Amino acid sequence: MQLKVLCLAFAPAVLSAIIPDSIRALQFAHSIDRPSDLQGINWFYAEAECDSRQRDTLFRGFKDVIQLAYTALPAPRGIGDNPIFKDFWGYGYHSGPLQNRFNTIFNNLGKAGRFPSYGNGGKGETNQLNVRCKDYLSRCKSRILAYVSGNNMVLCPDFWSFGFPHLKDRVKGKPTRALDRLITIEHILLHELMHVDNAGFLEHITDIRTTLVGESDSAEIPGGITAVVVYGVQRCKKLAKKKGEETPNLQTLMNADNYAWFSSAYYFSKAWDITVNEPESYIEGSVTGNPYAPPNRGFKYADNDFGEAEWTAGL
Ligand SMILES: [Zn+2]
């Protein structure tokens, strides 16, 4: 009983620490007006590898990614019952150890969102993210948009050639409930920032490879198990429900795309005052496109660094 009281008393303290911090961080982001103001970004490589238009896009993207990541942060207390939250994280974070995991979601989003603006509080280049336009590890392939390796984030040719809009431009455009049509520059950068360990997450956030009902393509997993990389609206939602409607699947906390899609769904729903969380093919119960189209319209974010611990089949 004693322990339970302590746990309950502890949780609101953590949440109240997030709220004023989010307001300060957003205020700070508004004061950024040139690339060197972004304390978490090292532009050394970008100066040589990216052209000035690309650097402008990245500056605006890294400056605004905090808007996307922080949309849900001021209201975490009641958000556990929000349908968008439940779609991407599952239901049942209301008590005990799961409440701490609930806090982890928002702490991780906060850390990723403010990393470009603030850095991680450390000094020197090793604490910053190198932004690069050169595929120095030869991982850019067709429809691979970006990747992260250590302190380096590479934006691939397809990131530039598909013409993704900026968040603040898209939100002024025509609303849609089709969430997977809403890939923005900032969405992609947030996905990649979730892989940057220097932001200070409790554990490495990867692109989960696992088995999902009705999904069968791509990923190779040791042991000959057919699995998928959990990219896209539909797969992220399936991952959240993998253990049933009432039991959150905590693998979602280690999957970058769950953070990115949750944030985009919440951002556009709030801005447009409609619920934006359906895959393109399932709008309002009718199939409006090819129901078998690849999630994300086939876009992938990265071949992220991964090790044995990140092979997650069967969990
Ligand atoms: Zn990724």
TrEMBL record:
Alphabetic keyword roster: Signal
GO terms, molecular function: metallopeptidase activity
Signal peptide region: 1-16
Coiled-coil region list: none
Protein origin, superkingdom: Eukaryota
Name of this chain's protein: Lysine-specific metallo-endopeptidase domain-containing protein
Species in which this protein is naturally found: Bimuria novae-zelandiae CBS 107.79
